[in-house]
Design a protein that fits this description.
Elements: E1 2-3, H1 14-34, E2 43-46, E3 58-64, E4 67-68, E5 80-86, E6 95-96, H2 99-113, H3 161-164, E7 172-173, H4 183-186, E8 193-194, H5 211-216, H6 220-226, H7 230-234, H8 246-249, E9 269-272, E10 276-283, H9 298-312, E11 318-324, E12 328-336, H10 342-354, H11 367-380, E13 387-394, H12 402-410, E14 415-419, H13 426-435, E15 439-441, H14 447-455, E16 458-465, E17 474-475, E18 478-480, E19 484-492, E20 499-504, E21 510-511, E22 520-525, E23 528-533, E24 539-547, E25 555-563, E26 566-573, E27 581-588, E28 593-594, E29 597-604, E30 612-615, E31 631-636, E32 643-652, E33 658-659, E34 675-676, E35 681-690, E36 704-705, E37 713-717, E38 723-730, E39 735-745, E40 753-758, E41 765-771, E42 777-781, E43 787-795, E44 801-809, H15 810-816
Parallel strand pairs: 1-3, 2-9, 3-5, 10-11, 10-13, 13-14, 14-15, 36-38
Antiparallel strand pairs: 4-5, 5-6, 7-8, 11-12, 16-25, 17-24, 18-24, 19-23, 19-25, 20-21, 20-24, 22-23, 26-27, 27-31, 28-33, 29-30, 29-32, 32-35, 33-34, 37-44, 38-43, 39-42, 39-44, 40-41, 40-43
Length: 867
């Protein structure tokens, strides 16, 4: 959870802490009771000042209407949005949630976010839907007395009896001239219904009168026990993530054995991530024994710089100290500077640091080992600190490896580097820049500098230029939107080079150190300079670096912003050839950003390899899973050489990009219309490693083994005209079905696929099938003996690409999907997520659903519980 306000260690901040701790315990209690022990919330990590805003499950601001993304708990996109003060629909005065009610409303939103439940209440007015109208509450709906209908008072989930055994104000269907395809569509909007005459009895049940029932046609409890039908999910305009119900989460398939009362909060913790967690890494290698120009040993300067940090770090900061040379030693384990007991803690840490200068430095400089140890300490203390980072203090005679920096970037661990030599280190500059930290000379660094850097979480523009003898200016145009806050534009160059750094503002004004308008400050250093804008206006800023001397090192220009608009990129798959990489670029502000242009460039470390483009899409067509959710998806399947690859992703607003709240459920409901955005630019990078490359078998000898239990195997046709041979075991008197799918084309050519089945000799053809969409299927009825059978895959129309092959008993499809194609039937093997022939086909394994008995309290049937 990330909150927009400051949670302080001071006495004034204790009210915030108590409010959140009480509210989150109420949330945990409600979830545990509502699900009768099948979900237990044990830890909630709370970050303040909007730290980890784009990655949090829950984001909380001061005022608004709570809402959540459906089923997004197991996804990288979508969040719960919470507010301390509710802004009622239809106007009226705002009011603040009490802590306990805050938790109940959060539990209601978790019903959407984690349990896939929809609303069971009535809206005071029609809302502008982001989804089909039948999935939204309406004024003519009813309020079911359940967590999803009345979270302020009720903690229970709805039962079947709530939809058949209670009366509500009656409405009647208007005359419909054309037959509706289903009952849900008849109740699409209130204008298709007539209210009853005044004084008429209330005799209508709740069926079809809640958004939840119109979607699932079953109560909330029955949905979690049985799951939804594929048929209903397929009709949604926005597809849902893979549903997870009670049978899937119960340990060993056994429901919780509950005792009265149902609440058990013994595991619950609200962990307020107040203060930072810093690991100070101090270089004590042999080169640190050298003196500087004033004859002061460099190790003494490093000790002084580390003590400066300890002295200036605010109360609540946790500090660990390690020394590194040939080996790494933890000098001070993680130690928190407590409020009210600061002096003894600071003195203890500083005494341990002072001792480092008493023994002569020796050994080599192992910065990699130090960073790995710092990483491990931070991971072990993941419940410590609002922000976690490393401060590396060295003379700069170091080297490091890109894969380690990539790990730190992936873990969101910036490294701040401090050079104690008069001449800095380009390696230390690169370490800081690549991990999101900052590099300073010992004379110009401080703990407040780190605090300012951490506030600037979001990179809004990065330009890296190689060494050049040219004096041509370097520019990095950067678009700032209304979602961007305080921004830093920074340029760096090799220490000793001469350069002029200036900034062109949206009104074409040129800012220089001698011409600083109000609101813009200039911060020079030995190896660069920065412009800091407290409140930037919307528009294009262009930082410009004008070299004044021949460069012997790289030049960098980049910008960072305290921004609500973020781009994060991650990958799934690709761990071993020939499995492709599926790349997801999430653009949020913090709600999903729709209509952006997202592209990528893949660059290989292999000498002579040309970079090539990667296309991202957010239209629900494979490989994208859900349309217009702010997650732009791409697939990389054409890497045929082992090695390291860099993927640079760029997100732009081509015009018309909007912020979509995705208000699945509010309290009481309703989503704001999509908000348009001005121009923006966001960049992110990933390091990918390709490994395990082998030649695909072109004959039965060395055929790829396929299991016969529907486990898919990735294979690849890397060159036109290639084939792939596979083998599987067929047992006597068996019936098997083999399929190809998951087709990913690497070029614009068609990929009509032929799948041929061969007998145990690998030469006698038994059956062959060719399909223009890459999905072929053959069947095998084995004789009375076991044997090994062969499959050959080829592209009948050329083309290269990757695909999956799977084999399974034919009875699986006959009984569970009811169709030869393997899809569509309830509980069947859904083979394709998309009709896009160049897309991804997901092979899923059918899971039998079983019914969990609903527990009852002693003394009779379960009754409703109030708050």
């Amino acid at each position: 959870m990330s909150v927009s306000w400051k949670i302080s260690e001071t006495a004034a901040g204790q009210g915030d802490r108590a409010y959140l701790e009480t509210g989150l315990r109420s949330f945990a209690d409600t979830i545990y009771e509502a699900t009768e022990g099948r979900f237990k919330v044990c830890k909630v990590f709370v970050f303040d000042k909007r730290r980890n805003w784009g990655k949090a499950d829950v984001v909380a601001e001061a005022k608004g209407r709570a809402n959540a993304a459906l089923g997004a708990l197991r996804e990288d996109s979508g969040q719960i949005r919470m507010f301390r003060e509710i802004d009622p629909i239809g106007g009226g005065p705002a009011h603040q949630y009490g802590a306990a009610v805050f938790g109940k409303v959060l539990a209601h939103e978790f019903g959407h976010y984690g349990l896939f439940l929809r609303d069971e209440y009535t809206e005071p007015q029609e809302a502008v839907p982001n989804e089909p109208p039948y999935l939204r509450p309406r004024p003519c709906d009813v309020q079911v007395q359940s967590l999803m209908g009345n979270p302020h008072s009720i903690t229970a989930l709805s039962l079947d009896t709530d939809y058949t055994g209670e009366d509500h104000p009656a409405w009647t269907l208007k005359e419909i001239t054309s037959p509706a395809p289903d009952q849900r569509t008849k109740y699409l909007t209130c204008d298709k219904l007539d209210p009853p005459p005044k004084g008429a009895p209330n005799t209508e049940t709740a069926q079809w009168r809640t958004a939840h029932y119109r979607h699932y046609q079953k109560s909330a409890w029955r949905l979690l026990v049985e799951g939804p039908t594929r048929e209903l999910l397929a009709r949604e305009a926005r597809s849902s993530p893979a549903f997870v119900g009670f049978p899937s989460i119960a340990e060993g398939g056994v429901p919780a054995k509950l005792k009265y009362p149902t609440f058990d909060g013994s595991c619950f913790q609200a962990i307020i991530m107040d203060g930072d967690y810093a690991v100070l890494a101090i270089d004590r290698s042999a080169s640190m024994a050298k003196p500087n120009a004033l004859n002061v040993p460099l190790v003494s300067l490093a000790v002084a710089a580390a003590k400066d940090y300890v002295t200036s770090a605010p109360a609540g900061t946790t500090i660990a100290v390690l020394e590194f040379a040939s080996d790494v030693t933890v000098v001070v384990p993680p130690t928190k500077i407590p409020l009210g007991g600061e002096a003894p803690a600071r003195a203890q840490i500083n005494a341990a640091i002072d001792a480092l200068a008493k023994n002569p430095p020796a050994g080599n400089t192992s910065l990699d080992a130090a960073l790995m140890k710092a990483r491990d300490l931070l991971l072990e203390g993941s419940a410590i600190g609002n922000s976690q980072y490393v401060v590396a203090i060295s003379d700069g005679e170091v080297a490091t490896q890109s894969w380690l920096l990539g790990q730190l970037v992936g873990l969101n661990i910036p490294v701040f580097t401090v050079a104690v030599r008069d001449a800095g280190s380009s390696v230390m500059q690169d370490v800081a820049r690549q991990t999101g930290g900052a590099h300073r000379n010992a004379k110009g660094w401080s703990q407040p500098l780190i605090e300012a850097e951490l506030k600037m979480q979001e990179p809004v523009g990065v330009r890296l230029y190689p060494a050049s003898s040219s004096n041509a200016p370097l520019e990095a145009p950067t678009e700032l939107s209304e979602r961007d806050g305080a921004t830093v534009f920074r340029a760096s160059w090799k220490e000793g080079d001469k350069a002029v750094f200036e900034l062109v503002t949206p009104d074409a004004g040129v800012v220089t150190p001698a011409n600083l308008p109000p609101g813009i400050s200039y911060e020079p250093s030995l190896e660069g300079a920065s412009y800091v804008i407290a409140s930037p206006v919307v528009g294009k800023y262009t930082p410009r670096l004008v070299p004044q001397s021949t460069s012997t090192g790289d030049r960098h220009i980049w910008a960072r912003s305290d921004s609500r608009l973020s781009l994060s990129v991650d990958t799934v798959g690709g761990k071993q050839y020939p499995e492709p990489w599926f790349v997801r670029a999430r653009l949020a502000a913090p709600q999903p950003v729709l209509g952006a242009s997202v592209t990528g460039t893949l660059t290989s470390s292999v000498a002579g390899a040309a970079p090539h483009g990667v296309a991202f899409r957010d239209d629900g067509q494979a490989p994208d899973e859900q349309p217009e959710d702010g997650v732009y998806t791409a697939v990389i399947a054409d890497v045929v050489e082992d090695g390291d690859y860099t993927l640079d992703v760029l997100a732009l607003n081509p015009g018309g990009a909007t912020v979509d709240p995705i208000g699945v459920g509010d309290d009481p409901g309703g989503a704001d219309p999509a908000a348009p955005l001005s121009s923006f630019r966001r960049e992110a990078s990933l390091t990918l490693k390709a490994q395990g490359r082998f030649a695909m078998p072109q004959s039965p000898a060395g055929a790829v083994q396929v299991r016969n239990d529907l486990t898919p195997v990735w294979v690849s046709i890397d060159h036109p005209g290639d084939v792939v041979w596979l083998e599987f075991n067929g047992y006597k008197k068996g019936w098997y079905v083999a399929m190809t799918g998951g087709l990913i084309a690497n070029d614009a050519g068609p990929m009509a696929t032929r799948l041929t089945l061969y007998d145990t000799d690998g030469a006698t053809e038994l059956e062959s099938d060719a399909q223009p969409d890459g999905r072929a299927r053959v069947e095998l009825h084995t004789p009375g003996i076991d044997g090994k059978y062969y499959l050959k895959v080829e592209h009948t129309s050329g083309g290269v690409g990757r695909f999956q092959v799977a084999v399974a008993p034919g009875e699986w499809f006959q009984k569970r999907s009811g169709t030869r194609s393997g899809g569509g039937g309830e509980g069947g093997c859904r083979l394709s997520r998309s009709s896009d022939s160049t897309g991804v086909v997901a092979f899923g394994t059918w899971l039998g659903l079983f019914v969990l008995r609903r527990t009852r309290k002693p003394g009779g049937p379960r009754r409703r519980r109030g708050s």
